[in-house]
Recover the amino acids of this structure.
Protein backbone atom coordinates (compact mmCIF):
# COMPACT_ATOMS: atom_id res chain seq x y z
CA UNK A 1 0.00 0.00 0.00
CA UNK A 2 1.57 3.26 -1.12
CA UNK A 3 1.50 6.28 1.14
CA UNK A 4 -0.41 9.36 -0.06
CA UNK A 5 1.72 12.15 -1.53
CA UNK A 6 -0.79 14.94 -0.87
CA UNK A 7 -2.77 16.05 2.16
CA UNK A 8 -6.18 17.09 0.94
CA UNK A 9 -7.63 17.76 4.40
CA UNK A 10 -5.42 20.78 5.14
CA UNK A 11 -8.25 23.32 4.48
CA UNK A 12 -10.37 21.52 7.11
CA UNK A 13 -7.84 22.09 9.91
CA UNK A 14 -8.57 24.83 12.48
CA UNK A 15 -7.30 28.23 11.28
CA UNK A 16 -4.89 28.65 14.21
CA UNK A 17 -3.28 25.29 13.38
CA UNK A 18 -2.96 26.19 9.69
CA UNK A 19 -1.27 29.47 10.62
CA UNK A 20 1.24 27.60 12.79
CA UNK A 21 2.04 25.28 9.91
CA UNK A 22 2.58 28.22 7.56
CA UNK A 23 4.86 29.80 10.17
CA UNK A 24 7.01 26.65 10.13
CA UNK A 25 7.20 26.95 6.34
CA UNK A 26 9.00 30.31 6.54
CA UNK A 27 12.57 30.27 5.17
CA UNK A 28 15.39 29.47 7.56
CA UNK A 29 17.72 32.35 8.55
CA UNK A 30 19.70 33.46 5.52
CA UNK A 31 22.76 35.57 4.79
CA UNK A 32 21.76 37.94 2.00
CA UNK A 33 24.55 39.51 -0.01
CA UNK A 34 23.38 43.03 -0.78
CA UNK A 35 25.29 45.35 -3.07
CA UNK A 36 24.52 48.97 -2.14
CA UNK A 37 25.78 51.73 -4.38
CA UNK A 38 27.48 54.26 -2.10
CA UNK A 39 27.63 56.84 -4.87
CA UNK A 40 23.85 56.82 -5.32
CA UNK A 41 21.19 55.48 -2.95
CA UNK A 42 18.94 54.59 -5.88
CA UNK A 43 20.12 50.97 -6.17
CA UNK A 44 20.22 48.01 -3.79
CA UNK A 45 20.87 44.69 -5.54
CA UNK A 46 20.46 41.20 -4.06
CA UNK A 47 23.35 38.85 -4.94
CA UNK A 48 22.89 35.16 -4.34
CA UNK A 49 20.78 32.08 -5.09
CA UNK A 50 17.72 33.22 -3.13
CA UNK A 51 14.49 34.01 -4.93
CA UNK A 52 13.42 37.66 -4.58
CA UNK A 53 9.93 36.44 -3.61
CA UNK A 54 9.81 33.53 -1.08
CA UNK A 55 7.52 30.65 -2.02
CA UNK A 56 5.24 31.22 0.95
CA UNK A 57 4.30 34.61 -0.50
CA UNK A 58 2.49 33.13 -3.50
CA UNK A 59 0.96 29.81 -2.35
CA UNK A 60 -2.38 31.19 -1.19
CA UNK A 61 -3.86 34.22 0.52
CA UNK A 62 -3.45 32.68 3.98
CA UNK A 63 0.23 31.87 3.51
CA UNK A 64 0.85 35.31 2.05
CA UNK A 65 -0.68 36.95 5.13
CA UNK A 66 1.79 35.02 7.31
CA UNK A 67 4.68 36.06 5.07
CA UNK A 68 3.67 39.71 5.05
CA UNK A 69 3.70 39.63 8.84
CA UNK A 70 7.47 39.01 8.93
CA UNK A 71 8.95 40.02 5.56
CA UNK A 72 9.94 43.49 4.44
CA UNK A 73 10.13 44.51 0.81
CA UNK A 74 13.64 45.68 -0.02
CA UNK A 75 15.87 48.00 1.98
CA UNK A 76 13.65 51.01 1.46
CA UNK A 77 12.33 52.76 -1.67
CA UNK A 78 15.59 51.88 -3.46
CA UNK A 79 15.38 49.22 -6.18
CA UNK A 80 18.05 47.35 -8.05
CA UNK A 81 19.19 48.44 -11.48
CA UNK A 82 16.41 46.43 -13.18
CA UNK A 83 13.65 47.94 -11.04
CA UNK A 84 13.13 44.77 -8.98
CA UNK A 85 13.00 44.38 -5.23
CA UNK A 86 13.30 41.49 -2.78
CA UNK A 87 11.78 40.29 0.49
CA UNK A 88 13.80 39.68 3.64
CA UNK A 89 13.11 38.93 7.31
CA UNK A 90 14.89 41.46 9.56
CA UNK A 91 14.36 39.26 12.63
CA UNK A 92 16.65 36.44 11.46
CA UNK A 93 18.26 37.34 8.12
CA UNK A 94 21.79 38.76 8.03
CA UNK A 95 22.57 41.56 5.60
CA UNK A 96 26.06 41.02 4.23
CA UNK A 97 27.47 44.12 2.57
CA UNK A 98 30.23 42.60 0.40
CA UNK A 99 33.43 44.48 -0.41
CA UNK A 100 32.21 46.48 -3.37
CA UNK A 101 34.15 49.37 -4.81
CA UNK A 102 32.72 51.74 -2.20
CA UNK A 103 34.16 49.67 0.68
CA UNK A 104 37.51 49.15 -1.01
CA UNK A 105 38.32 52.77 -1.79
CA UNK A 106 36.93 54.32 1.40
CA UNK A 107 34.15 56.34 -0.23
CA UNK A 108 31.41 54.72 1.86
CA UNK A 109 33.29 55.33 5.09
CA UNK A 110 33.73 59.01 4.35
CA UNK A 111 30.08 59.19 3.29
CA UNK A 112 28.68 57.54 6.43
CA UNK A 113 31.23 59.11 8.76
CA UNK A 114 30.08 62.63 8.01
CA UNK A 115 26.40 61.76 8.46
CA UNK A 116 25.43 61.78 4.80
CA UNK A 117 23.12 58.77 5.06
CA UNK A 118 20.33 58.65 2.46
CA UNK A 119 16.89 59.25 4.03
CA UNK A 120 15.49 56.08 2.46
CA UNK A 121 18.05 54.05 4.44
CA UNK A 122 16.83 55.52 7.73
CA UNK A 123 13.11 56.25 7.59
CA UNK A 124 11.53 53.25 5.89
CA UNK A 125 14.79 51.48 5.06
CA UNK A 126 16.83 48.75 6.65
CA UNK A 127 18.58 50.87 9.31
CA UNK A 128 15.47 51.07 11.49
CA UNK A 129 14.80 47.31 11.61
CA UNK A 130 17.98 45.36 10.76
CA UNK A 131 19.25 43.12 13.57
CA UNK A 132 22.15 41.24 12.00
CA UNK A 133 24.86 42.70 9.76
CA UNK A 134 27.97 41.09 8.25
CA UNK A 135 30.91 43.14 6.99
CA UNK A 136 34.15 42.22 5.19
CA UNK A 137 37.04 42.39 7.64
CA UNK A 138 40.06 44.41 6.53
CA UNK A 139 42.40 46.97 8.04
CA UNK A 140 40.31 49.90 6.85
CA UNK A 141 37.13 48.64 8.54
CA UNK A 142 39.04 47.58 11.66
CA UNK A 143 40.29 51.14 11.96
CA UNK A 144 36.70 52.36 11.86
CA UNK A 145 35.80 49.93 14.64
CA UNK A 146 38.58 50.17 17.21
CA UNK A 147 42.13 50.66 15.85
CA UNK A 148 41.71 54.42 15.51
CA UNK A 149 41.29 56.86 18.43
CA UNK A 150 37.70 57.39 19.52
CA UNK A 151 37.07 60.35 17.22
CA UNK A 152 38.11 58.28 14.19
CA UNK A 153 35.88 55.26 14.79
CA UNK A 154 33.37 56.15 12.10
CA UNK A 155 31.95 52.62 11.77
CA UNK A 156 30.94 52.45 15.43
CA UNK A 157 29.17 55.78 15.04
CA UNK A 158 27.24 54.38 12.07
CA UNK A 159 26.35 51.09 13.79
CA UNK A 160 25.01 53.02 16.77
CA UNK A 161 22.33 54.39 14.45
CA UNK A 162 20.84 50.89 14.10
CA UNK A 163 18.44 50.73 17.07
CA UNK A 164 17.59 47.01 16.67
CA UNK A 165 21.14 45.76 16.00
CA UNK A 166 21.87 42.44 17.75
CA UNK A 167 24.99 41.04 16.06
CA UNK A 168 27.87 42.12 13.84
CA UNK A 169 29.79 39.41 11.96
CA UNK A 170 33.23 40.34 10.62
CA UNK A 171 34.09 38.05 7.73
CA UNK A 172 37.58 37.03 6.63
CA UNK A 173 37.57 36.35 2.88
CA UNK A 174 40.26 33.80 2.03
CA UNK A 175 40.02 33.99 -1.76
CA UNK A 176 39.41 37.02 -3.93
CA UNK A 177 37.76 34.79 -6.59
CA UNK A 178 34.53 34.63 -4.59
CA UNK A 179 33.88 38.35 -4.61
CA UNK A 180 30.87 39.39 -6.64
CA UNK A 181 29.87 35.88 -7.74
CA UNK A 182 26.05 35.95 -7.53
CA UNK A 183 25.28 32.21 -7.61
CA UNK A 184 27.08 31.30 -4.38
CA UNK A 185 25.53 30.40 -1.04
CA UNK A 186 27.30 31.83 2.03
CA UNK A 187 28.73 29.38 4.58
CA UNK A 188 30.47 30.38 7.83
CA UNK A 189 33.51 28.64 9.32
CA UNK A 190 35.30 29.15 12.63
CA UNK A 191 38.72 30.77 12.10
CA UNK A 192 41.96 29.46 13.50
CA UNK A 193 43.28 31.73 16.23
CA UNK A 194 46.53 32.58 14.45
CA UNK A 195 47.90 35.97 13.30
CA UNK A 196 46.37 37.35 10.10
CA UNK A 197 48.83 38.96 7.72
CA UNK A 198 46.17 41.23 6.19
CA UNK A 199 45.24 42.59 9.64
CA UNK A 200 48.62 43.67 11.02
CA UNK A 201 49.31 40.26 12.55
CA UNK A 202 46.27 40.34 14.85
CA UNK A 203 44.43 37.16 15.81
CA UNK A 204 40.64 36.76 15.40
CA UNK A 205 40.11 36.57 19.17
CA UNK A 206 42.14 39.76 19.67
CA UNK A 207 39.93 41.54 17.15
CA UNK A 208 36.73 40.42 18.87
CA UNK A 209 38.02 41.58 22.26
CA UNK A 210 39.24 44.89 20.82
CA UNK A 211 35.89 45.65 19.19
CA UNK A 212 33.94 44.73 22.33
CA UNK A 213 36.17 46.97 24.47
CA UNK A 214 35.74 49.86 22.02
CA UNK A 215 31.96 49.44 22.14
CA UNK A 216 31.96 49.36 25.93
CA UNK A 217 33.93 52.63 25.88
CA UNK A 218 31.30 54.08 23.55
CA UNK A 219 28.54 52.91 25.85
CA UNK A 220 30.25 54.53 28.83
CA UNK A 221 30.14 57.97 27.19
CA UNK A 222 26.54 58.63 28.13
CA UNK A 223 25.08 55.85 25.95
CA UNK A 224 24.05 53.44 28.71
CA UNK A 225 20.80 52.63 26.91
CA UNK A 226 22.69 51.21 23.94
CA UNK A 227 22.69 47.39 23.88
CA UNK A 228 26.15 46.35 22.70
CA UNK A 229 25.73 43.80 19.86
CA UNK A 230 27.44 40.43 19.71
CA UNK A 231 30.74 40.47 17.77
CA UNK A 232 32.03 37.45 15.85
CA UNK A 233 34.97 36.97 13.50
CA UNK A 234 34.23 34.16 11.04
CA UNK A 235 35.64 32.89 7.75
CA UNK A 236 33.52 33.36 4.66
CA UNK A 237 33.01 30.24 2.57
CA UNK A 238 30.67 29.80 -0.36
CA UNK A 239 29.31 26.81 -2.19
CA UNK A 240 26.96 25.84 -4.97
CA UNK A 241 23.96 23.58 -4.67
CA UNK A 242 25.02 20.95 -7.20
CA UNK A 243 27.40 18.34 -5.73
CA UNK A 244 29.68 18.28 -8.77
CA UNK A 245 30.63 21.95 -8.42
CA UNK A 246 33.55 23.35 -6.46
CA UNK A 247 33.23 24.78 -2.97
CA UNK A 248 35.25 25.86 0.06
CA UNK A 249 35.41 23.37 2.92
CA UNK A 250 37.42 22.92 6.14
CA UNK A 251 41.01 21.86 5.54
CA UNK A 252 42.42 18.74 7.16
CA UNK A 253 46.12 19.29 6.41
CA UNK A 254 46.68 22.28 8.70
CA UNK A 255 50.37 22.56 7.93
CA UNK A 256 50.16 26.27 7.15
CA UNK A 257 49.71 29.18 9.57
CA UNK A 258 46.53 30.36 7.91
CA UNK A 259 43.62 31.83 9.82
CA UNK A 260 41.03 30.33 7.50
CA UNK A 261 41.78 26.67 8.01
CA UNK A 262 40.10 26.11 4.64
CA UNK A 263 40.93 24.28 1.47
CA UNK A 264 39.23 24.37 -1.90
CA UNK A 265 38.05 21.48 -4.02
CA UNK A 266 40.21 21.76 -7.10
CA UNK A 267 38.26 23.38 -9.96
CA UNK A 268 38.67 22.71 -13.65
CA UNK A 269 40.80 24.86 -15.96
CA UNK A 270 37.63 26.31 -17.54
CA UNK A 271 36.26 27.27 -14.14
CA UNK A 272 39.50 28.98 -13.14
CA UNK A 273 39.43 31.03 -16.33
CA UNK A 274 35.76 31.93 -15.81
CA UNK A 275 36.52 33.25 -12.34
CA UNK A 276 39.03 35.69 -13.76
CA UNK A 277 36.62 37.11 -16.31
CA UNK A 278 33.19 37.43 -14.73
CA UNK A 279 31.48 39.52 -12.09
CA UNK A 280 34.35 41.81 -11.20
CA UNK A 281 33.78 45.20 -9.62
CA UNK A 282 36.47 47.54 -10.99
CA UNK A 283 37.89 49.07 -7.81
CA UNK A 284 38.18 45.69 -6.08
CA UNK A 285 41.03 44.39 -8.19
CA UNK A 286 43.61 46.59 -6.52
CA UNK A 287 42.08 46.31 -3.04
CA UNK A 288 42.02 42.52 -2.84
CA UNK A 289 45.73 42.35 -3.53
CA UNK A 290 46.26 44.39 -0.37
CA UNK A 291 44.30 42.35 2.16
CA UNK A 292 42.40 39.37 0.77
CA UNK A 293 44.96 36.89 -0.55
CA UNK A 294 46.82 36.27 2.72
CA UNK A 295 49.90 35.05 0.83
CA UNK A 296 48.45 31.84 -0.58
CA UNK A 297 51.46 30.93 -2.72
CA UNK A 298 50.54 27.25 -2.81
CA UNK A 299 47.22 27.92 -4.51
CA UNK A 300 48.93 30.07 -7.14
CA UNK A 301 50.69 26.98 -8.46
CA UNK A 302 47.49 25.35 -9.66
CA UNK A 303 45.75 28.63 -10.49
CA UNK A 304 48.41 29.31 -13.14
CA UNK A 305 48.63 25.83 -14.56
CA UNK A 306 48.03 22.14 -13.98
CA UNK A 307 51.03 20.67 -12.20
CA UNK A 308 49.18 17.89 -10.43
CA UNK A 309 49.86 15.39 -13.20
CA UNK A 310 53.59 15.78 -12.81
CA UNK A 311 53.32 15.31 -9.06
CA UNK A 312 51.30 12.16 -9.52
CA UNK A 313 53.82 10.73 -11.95
CA UNK A 314 56.60 11.56 -9.51
CA UNK A 315 54.82 9.76 -6.72
CA UNK A 316 54.34 6.74 -8.96
CA UNK A 317 58.04 6.73 -9.74
CA UNK A 318 58.93 6.78 -6.08
CA UNK A 319 56.52 3.94 -5.42
CA UNK A 320 58.00 1.86 -8.23
CA UNK A 321 61.51 2.48 -6.88
CA UNK A 322 60.51 1.31 -3.44
CA UNK A 323 59.01 -1.81 -4.99
CA UNK A 324 62.30 -2.66 -6.75
CA UNK A 325 64.25 -2.27 -3.49
CA UNK A 326 61.82 -4.61 -1.74
CA UNK A 327 62.24 -7.20 -4.52
CA UNK A 328 66.03 -7.03 -4.19
CA UNK A 329 65.80 -7.55 -0.43
CA UNK A 330 63.53 -10.56 -0.89
CA UNK A 331 65.93 -12.08 -3.47
CA UNK A 332 68.83 -11.56 -1.08
CA UNK A 333 67.03 -13.37 1.72
CA UNK A 334 66.19 -16.33 -0.54
CA UNK A 335 69.80 -16.65 -1.73
CA UNK A 336 71.08 -16.60 1.83
Amino acid sequence: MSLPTTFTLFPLLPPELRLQIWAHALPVPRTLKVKIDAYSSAHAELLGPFAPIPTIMHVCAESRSVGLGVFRLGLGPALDKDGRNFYWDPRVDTLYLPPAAAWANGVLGEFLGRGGIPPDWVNDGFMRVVRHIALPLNVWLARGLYLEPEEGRWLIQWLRRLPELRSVTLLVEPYDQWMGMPDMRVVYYEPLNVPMSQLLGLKPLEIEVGVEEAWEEEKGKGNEEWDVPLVEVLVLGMKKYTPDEWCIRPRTNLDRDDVTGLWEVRPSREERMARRLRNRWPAELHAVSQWSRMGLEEEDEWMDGDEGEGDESGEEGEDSGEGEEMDEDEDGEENS
The chain has one domain: 28-270+277-304.
